[in-house]
Amino acid sequence: MVRSGMSRGGKVVLVLAFMLAGGALLPWALREGGVAAGLSTVLTGEEVSVEESAQRARAVQLLKEGNYGEAYDIFHRLLTAPARDARAVCEDLPYAWECLARLNRMDEIDALIEQSVEAQAGNWRFLVAAAELYRQLPHQGFLIAGEYRRGPHRGGGEVANSFQRDRVRALQLMRQAMPAADQDDNRAEAAGFYLRFAQMWLEGAGGVEAWRLGALTDLETLPDYEQGWG
Given 157, 159, 185, 190, which is the most exposed site by the fewest CB atoms within 10 A? Predict the structure, then answer.
């Protein structure tokens, strides 16, 4: 992260661009303030972490005050950029979902989860958090012009559900998290991961539904949305 000026004790990088012939400053170095335009502050990793924590605290406060739109904007930024705090970012996702639900923008959560998973791909705990959210989301929605929109909708569309699709996507994310969980030094949390993974396989297939465990689940392909409420 780069900021103009010399604030917060960061490293100051002075960029002086010279032409090979004559040593004159290049035109871009002379524009908009001359040499001063080449001064910037590079925040250290510790400073970035402090700023990230401050943004997170601000978002939580906005959420508590009912400013859901502003809170969501901050959570969105935190989720879609690689996080310094691998544990705290896991809590940002359910907070962001709460904001969207209160704003009646449930149909935006799928895109947010996938963007966040891409940004936090190296964080196995976040992948678990994303899988958990897929299991907890409302699985009903509408197909509108061939696109699935999660949650209630006015103005037509075909009723559809994403029960099986959400289940398979959650299992895919858990499988993606496995290699990093295996290498984690916290063996208790790694064991907890496998316990939760096993529970996810059983969800929707317990009791009188146990016969479903005899059907193999294809984790390579997401099932299509199904008609009806499910």
Answer: 185
pTM across the whole model: 0.78
Q: What is the pLDDT of residues 170-206, one digit of tens each?
A: 999 999 999 999 999 999 999 999 999 999 998 877 6
- The verdict on residue 212 lying in a domain is no
Asked whether 79 and 92 are in contact (CB, 8 A), the reply is yes
In the chain, the largest separation of any two C-alpha atoms, in whole Å, equals 85
- Print the domain residue range for 21: 1-43
Contact 60, 99 (CB under 8 A): no
H-state helical runs in 103-207: 109-119, 124-136, 163-183, 187-202
Same domain, 142 and 225: yes
12, containing H or E segment: strand 11-14
Pairwise CA distance, residues 143 & 153, whole Å: 10
CA triple 103-106-112, angle to 5 deg: 105
Among candidate residues 100, 120, 140, the one where a domain is terminated: 120
